[in-house]
Write a structure and sequence with these properties.
Chain lengths: 368, 248
């Protein structure tokens, strides 16, 4: 048997070496190989030069980087001093100045947890979920205060990146498991009441634009609770994000469940697994791995959609940008403020999207 | 010592898919440690028949008894019966997100509540028994068809079943891998497992089966020990089927 295999490889040899073209030759072959292409290349190059050089001159060469408005008078470039002055507001809103270190510590803790969780050996330890829960509790107590000698800071002073991250992360973290349960409820044919309730909720929440969900939850939620209790405004918005995340996750999961072949269910049943074990051990791990990129794009969409909370009186990152511009000191510096915030949004979303690609690639090898 | 009560019994069992009757008044008794091969043209209901034993399909008329217990729609009973009846599928149906060893350990750990270390030992023993101990840490996608099917057999055996059902286990395999799977099944038969095998592998049937059942259009047409079955087929449908599969 082995002799036969070895014989089959005797005639084989490695492929011919690939010739690598230098950049000049590549350009000649691809960009300048016909008169039309030469024209298009030159046109594209001119457009690129105009825009990039314009941006560079405005944003960097002629720009002023400081913290006071005086040096910005009369310049043709960007006045980044608005960022220099307001960066604390961008990060934590109208949080009391002396207590801002608490927000920064919280951010740092989350960052540390994220980076260490990405390391393979750490991820496999069974303490990780407990550690995360502890971190989240700590972060919340730290920012909220009121205990352990920390001055209480009510949510109306929270703002900026704190709210953007907080709303989207908690929204997704709570909404996703709820959504998975909703999807299971929706696909269960043995329990028609549960199925109807799940379908009703999902369709209702998904048929309404997110901004309406925010407004409705801000107005309607207090009605369900004892009169006179002013329900925390941030909590109202958080509930809206959780509901939206749950409904969308439910539909995504339903798609993923449908992609799991019947054979998997039969094999699971054949060894005696009950419904929940079958779902938890066999079906959901496969479905969720396939749906990972979709969930990540949902997170990115949430990060952007939290900018809508400005309509219910909360100040997220975008709201902070508008706050900065509203200050008469920085009148007219809208572009700089929004461009900076835009860059922050871009960085966050791009980083998350790259991370998800790496995760996808890794899971594809194992799960196939 | 095999006991007198049949391990599996069908009494006037019928099943319909919509308006189409796929099993017609099946009466069958299978004894403990008996090896039965079921063959027949496609659409004859042979796969459906064995799938009613572990209730992957439900029968609408008649009674089915597994080890003396009548099958009902009670969910708890379903799960219990399924833990004692192992099944091997034509498409293997291994869990792709788990290694070979984890596939095998799943049943004992989560259904029989066996501690992980012991389940791991069981898995490694079974992998050795089916001849692929070195593949324990590979994922199904990295294994050949024959290896995957052997892992599937090990996975079914890990539950220490009383009965093993095989639904065309070699039909999806390349010819050069059929022998390795049949060898495992031969060893299993030799060790005294009650087996019901739906297959077209007549060589295997002749060698291993105690009884061969021929089904056509939902009915059991003929059943006999292999020597009788191949040499003196009584029904014309049986003769037709045998002529089609034995001479190519």
């Amino acid at each position: 048997m082995r002799a036969a295999v070895e014989m089959a490889q005797v005639g084989r040899r490695p492929p011919p070496a690939r010739i690598r073209w230098g950049p000049v030759r590549w350009m000649a072959a691809n960009l300048f190989n016909s008169w039309l292409n030469v024209l298009l290349t030159l046109l594209a190059a001119w457009i690129a030069w105009k825009t990039l050089s314009g941006l560079f001159m405005w944003g960097i060469w002629n720009a002023v980087f400081g913290t006071t408005p005086e040096p910005c008078r009369g310049i043709s470039g960007a006045c980044w001093s608005v960022v220099g002055d307001y960066w604390r507001v961008f990060l934590s809103g109208r949080y009391p100045e002396e207590e801002r270190w608490r927000v920064y510590t919280a951010f740092l803790m989350i960052l540390i947890m994220l980076t260490t969780s990405a390391v393979g050996t750490v991820r496999r330890t069974r303490w990780l979920p407990a550690l995360w829960l502890m971190t989240v509790a700590l972060v919340f107590t730290l920012v909220r205060g009121g205990v352990f000698g920390l001055r209480g800071v009510s949510t109306q002073y929270w703002g900026g990146l704190l709210i953007t991250f907080g709303l989207s992360s908690v929204g997704l973290a709570v909404g996703m498991p709820v959504g998975v349960l909703l999807a299971l409820g929706r696909t269960s044919n043995r329990m028609p009441v549960i199925k109807t309730v799940c379908v009703g909720f999902i369709e209702l929440v998904r048929s309404v634009p997110f901004i309406m969900l925010l407004i409705m939850s801000s107005i309607m939620l207090p009605m369900f609770f004892p009169r006179g209790w002013d329900m925390d405004h941030l909590l109202r918005a958080q509930i809206a994000t959780i509901m939206s995340a749950a409904a969308n996750s439910a539909e995504i999961t339903r798609g993923g469940l449908a992609a799991i072949g019947r054979g998997q269910l039969e094999a699971a049943k054949a060894i005696g697994l009950n419904y929940w074990k079958m779902m938890g051990l066999v079906v959901l791990p496969q479905a969720l791995r396939h749906m990972l990129p979709v969930f990540v794009s949902m997170f990115i969409i949430f990060v952007k959609d939290t900018s809508l909370v400005v309509v219910v009186g909360l100040f997220d990152l975008l709201g902070a940008a508008r706050l900065a511009v509203g200050n008469p000191k920085w009148m007219g510096k809208d572009i700089e403020s929004f461009v900076f915030v835009g860059l922050v949004y871009f960085t966050i979303c791009f980083a998350v999207s790259r991370m998800s690609r790496r995760l996808e690639a890794k899971y594809r090898v194992a799960a196939h | 010592m095999p006991d007198a009560r049949p391990m599996i019994e069908f009494r006037n069992v019928s099943k319909w898919f919509g308006n189409f009757q796929v099993l017609v008044d099946i009466n069958l008794k299978i004894a403990c440690q008996e090896r039965v091969v079921i063959c027949g043209p496609s659409g004859s209901g042979k796969s459906t028949l064995i799938r009613t034993i572990n209730r992957l399909e439900e029968h609408q008329a008649g009674k089915i008894f597994v080890d003396g217990e009548e099958l009902t729609s009670d969910i708890k009973q379903e799960e219990r019966i399924r833990a004692d009846v192992g099944m091997v599928f034509q498409q293997f149906n291994l869990f792709p997100h788990m290694t070979a060893r984890d596939n095998i350990m799943l049943g004992p750990t989560w259904v029989r509540q066996i501690p992980k270390a012991q389940a791991r030992r069981i898995a490694d023993e079974l992998l050795a028994r089916v001849g692929i101990p070195e593949q324990a840490d590979k994922y199904p996608a990295q294994l050949s068809g024959g290896q995957q099917q052997r892992v599937a057999i090990a996975r079914a055996l890990a539950m220490r079943p009383k009965i093993m059902l095989f639904d065309e286990p070699t039909s999806a395999l390349d010819p050069e891998m059929i022998k390795e799977v049949l060898d495992v099944m031969r060893e299993l038969a030799g060790a005294g497992m009650t087996m019901i095998v739906v297959t077209h592998e007549m060589g295997f049937a002749r060698e291993v089966a105690d009884r061969i059942i021929f089904m056509d259009a939902g009915e059991i047409v003929e059943q006999n020990p292999p020597s009788e079955f191949f040499q003196n087929p009584r029904e014309s449908r049986t003769k037709l089927f045998l002529s089609q599969i034995l001479h190519h």
